[in-house]
Hints:
The structure holds two protein chains of two kinds.
Chain A: H1 4-10, E1 18-26, H2 30-36, E2 46-54, E3 58-66, H3 72-75, E4 86-91, E5 94-100, E6 106-108, E7 111-112, E8 128-134, E9 137-141, E10 147-149, E11 154-155
Antiparallel strand pairs in A: 1-3, 1-4, 2-3, 4-5, 6-8, 7-11, 8-9, 9-10
Chain B: H1 5-20, E1 31-36, H2 41-53, E2 57-61, H3 75-85, E3 88-93, H4 98-105, E4 110-115, H5 121-135, E5 142-146, H6 153-162, E6 169-173, H7 182-191, E7 194-198, E8 210-213, H8 224-230, E9 249-251, H9 272-290
Parallel strand pairs in B: 1-2, 1-3, 3-4, 5-6, 5-8, 6-7, 8-9
Helix pairs in contact in B: 1-5, 1-9, 2-9, 3-4, 5-6, 5-9
Subunit structure (chain A): Contains catalytic and regulatory chains.
Family (chain A): Belongs to the PyrI family.
Keywords (chain A): Metal-binding, Pyrimidine biosynthesis, Transferase, Zinc
Amino acid sequence: xxxxxxxxxxxxxxxxxxxxxxxxxxxxxxxxxxxxxxxxxxxxxxxxxxxxxxxxxxxxxxxxxxxxxxxxxxxxxxxxxxxxxxxxxxxxxxxxxxxxxxxxxxxxxxxxxxxxxxxxxxxxxxxxxxxxxxxxxxxxxxxxxxxxxxxxxxxx
Amino acid sequence: xxxxxxxxxxxxxxxxxxxxxxxxxxxxxxxxxxxxxxxxxxxxxxxxxxxxxxxxxxxxxxxxxxxxxxxxxxxxxxxxxxxxxxxxxxxxxxxxxxxxxxxxxxxxxxxxxxxxxxxxxxxxxxxxxxxxxxxxxxxxxxxxxxxxxxxxxxxxxxxxxxxxxxxxxxxxxxxxxxxxxxxxxxxxxxxxxxxxxxxxxxxxxxxxxxxxxxxxxxxxxxxxxxxxxxxxxxxxxxxxxxxxxxxxxxxxxxxxxxxxxxxxxxxxxxxxxxxxxxxxxxxxxxxxxxxxxx
Lengths: 156, 294
């Protein structure tokens, strides 16, 4: 593993010199993560791999974004769909920092309120929730005050 | 509406003042919009009476068929427009959370006159005013809630408000299908408040200070046979009031169907019509408080 040539052979997604690697994303949520982090709008180089083998997740996805670094508030937005995601901050091909994501206290946007009679499902309104429980997730809608549980969660 | 205990008591105090002197021209020169996106004759008339007694002028509509909603206007646009016209908006809307959303958009205060199954805060305040008026206190009361405790928003809001006061006891009487939802029972347990659940409606109401009756609505039942089985179980009759406490009073948000037998009406413990009357004074108090008129 210490042999750089072997290591390179093992990499299924090419290494980056500067930027952020987001690992351990559940494979099925890769494109949602891309959308939440607005990586579909960036001009930075992005490489990603999907359906990679993972001991923890079965199938995982990984995203490598060159020359882009994220604030905690931004990255925590993916905690709802990728709770075990890990970030590696890369400088000159080396990992200089590792970070984990955390479910925030407030969730703005991202999730739909499960209540069909909530005003947010009937007009163009950004949803807003207070996080009551992190595991399993329970989100209280700021508007209708109903609680959306993890199994009812739909990502917008 | 997230009132503190002090604010509840302030509204009660103001309501008592308006009951002494209902006609005060505090809204002179002001325009109040009553926007009823779904019809509610009782609530609208109560608000409009309160506004008139305060000397205000009223604009608005009594159901969405007579507003631009039928042309596809969003709530957002309606509120933006009306908040340019009026000094205060009283709003009833079938969707949950609509009042909070409107309050975010509006440049003038919004009073929630009911947002779907979510909240009906002015009903809660008039219920509390009726309780304090008849019991002289909001502390140490044994409150029986009867009927549809699952969907009845008035009982939920009243439970949350009363649980801020000292040492209440709740008794819930409902069929299996219409039991008090867990989230409210969890709230009571967290607050260390005692509650008891019953399936049968019998003479143990002798303990009660307040019996809060609600309508068991046929449309809530998935199985019509179940409705037929329970619809006559939760009827309060005059004969059941024999051994009740002298201070006990019967409340009902109205309209009633058959859950309070007409023979109860002449009993001095029947309080539901006075309760509706209290709504006027309470709403005058809420308007005055909201606009800082006193």
